[in-house]
Amino acid sequence: MRMALYTMKRIAWAWLAACVLPLTFAFVLCGCQVRRMSRYLPEATNFASPSPTGGLPPTPLRTSPTDTWALWTTGTQLRGANIYQRRVYPELDGPTFMGPGPFGPPLMQADFDALAALGANYVNLSHPGLFTETAPYTVDLEAQANLDSLLTMAAQADMFAVITFRTGPGRSEFWAFWGEDTAQDPDGWFDPDYYDNRVWGDQAAQDAWVEMWRYTAQRYKDNPIVVGYDLMCEPNSNEVGSYPLGPALDVWDPDEFYAVYGGTLYDWNQLYPRIVTAIRQVDQDTPILVGGMGYSAVEWLPYLEPVSDTHTLYTIHQYAPFSYTHQEPDTLTYTYPGTLDLDWDGTPDTFNRDWLDGYLATVDTFVNTHGVPVAVNELGVHRWAPGGDAFLDDQLSLLEQRGLNYALWEWATSYLPFASEVDAFNFRHGPDPDHHSDISSSLQSVVVAHWAQNTARPSRPITFTPVATIHLPLVARYTATSTSPLAMVNDFLYQLQDLDLTAIGNSAYDLVVMDYSADGGETGEFTATQIDALRHSPGGEKIVLAYMSIGEAEDYRFYWQDGWEVGDPAWLDAENPDWSGNYKVRYWDPAWQTIILSYTDRLLNAGFDGAYLDIIDAYEYYSATRPTAAQDMADFVARIRAYARARDPDFLVFPQNAAELARIVPGYLDVVDGIGQEDIYYGYEDDDVMTPPTVTAALEADLDLFRYAGKCVLTVDYATTPAHIDDAYAKSQAKGYIPFVTVRDLDQLTINPGHEPD
Q1: Per residue in 425-468, pLDDT tens?
Q2: How far is Cα 711 from Cα 172, in angstroms, rounded to an integer?
Q3: 2-451, what's its fold?
Q4: Quick one: which of 224, 222, 214, 276 has its CA closest to 71?
Q5: Is the CATH code 3.20.20.70 the one for domain 492-555+586-742?
């Protein structure tokens, strides 16, 4: 939804533009009255944007893919409304207008329940994207937690949801307030520096937008209420260009736009198919929604180029005719049915149901030409527009006649500082512009009558129970910021045997992975004084992680007892044929986990910065007989991290290998701080032998999930040939990983020529 300040001046500008622009782009400007206000009401209570909550996100069962797609292809099944939130800017929004942040206006469970109570079965979550707007384009933990909370509330209200991203890499929220800046408008409310539309001119931003959706689909693909991904709210390079990277375009004729900018980065038709492909690599079933350029106006729909994906549908935002739907109280010139200059020839035209039916013929042609479904995931009319009830009744009837799903703009929050000022589209407030609370009206009766036809719902109780066994707050992701303990890391050492702490301390390595003991056993345990000296050593400050195997038991560790054998204790399983004295363990067994937590205590007592967890891939050994094996391992990692952070809030957890858990277990990325990956370029089949390219590509795809989540990715390759070492470093660094190449025995302080730590 494009936001606008609907003052007399704005309306006058719209009329001036309309008088000189042809019909094909006369009804593009769609939006609602959501902006920074100059005054603020008393602060309300009991409202807040959600904070990140603990444990792993749920892994609920999904309704069948066929049923999900059928919601969009078997007549009008989804009728509901948009719920809108954006990031709060205290310097612009003031202390109360948008709520306490980080996103607003605040929403409560009661808001979702009230929407469902009136009959809606579908909510379009018009929400900021999950990646940051600015480079290096990592996961925005606050946005993710906020979206998780909204989905939980929608599920509790038994409604389906579509996720729509308003922002993302290279696109700030201020595209929706174009022209309301202080440079273009004397009454503007923000500096032009808030604009960021570089996604339309920056390949890196577009690449990151693709990865954002890959990440999002991986996270929500099994959520049973999510029935669609709307890739971008109102693509609009035709107006904003890539400003400030490039100039604004202000091109409203689709033919003119595509003649000049078709096939360039400005062209949505070259970007959105890449997003579809990325989503389908991790989620083959969830429907994908794509709106056209020109703020998804009807006139731009024919210029969308459909893809071959069989679960993609196309959308419009329908606010035509804008001069009627967006009338302000002091300029209520038009009524419905009535007369209105609809083709801008200076002569009034008949404005009625027949005109609406003819206007929607563009949709009919698109559907018949391409054989694809269309939905209307935004439409609306100001609540005081004369005849608005009849207008909306006719429009909804025409959409239902065509079998189109739709979502009204918008379902308003009950948070008073916002709801009492921004309510032009809030049909619950009635037709009186000066009334700002719920009241019965003919417009509401129309909405409720149409929503009453809904029968489809998630149809069973949806309980979002965290699958982790612990519930502690998530911490912010480590990104390259000055406050991150991992920000300084650009090289690391991995050595488990023959440790010389003085030599390691004199090296310039930023991060060290080492054993917690000189001999692996209790007698050789390093002291807190020794580890503290290593952390603050002559070679430079170091982050020191202690190796800890959690998927196998080792017979030389402090916990091993004489007389233990396979099956006794019950969690002790087969010996690893490749590593004598190492035994598989049933890692989900509480007795084994208690041992590992006591191991963690030893790391904490010695002052290690974190744990480097090995044999995470043990879950594969049990997966054939234990369906929850992957989830059990993720839960175990989460439990270790939470246990450690109860004593040391900054304790780091790095699993080694099994990067695919980021795909398999939703939320796994939330409970780790980085990952180590062995054999990605050399050593998979044999030491000093190049890893097969297909294996490398698969590993990189999974590791990229960590990288885009702002995690530190360490790669460990086993090679001795100088050319192979150089190749491994080059490939790892090109991907944004941190490389180390050494020997598999991990018994030497390796410093590779040409790749010395700095």
Answers
A1: 999 999 999 999 999 899 999 999 999 999 999 974 333 333 33
A2: 23
A3: TIM Barrel (3.20.20)
A4: 224
A5: yes
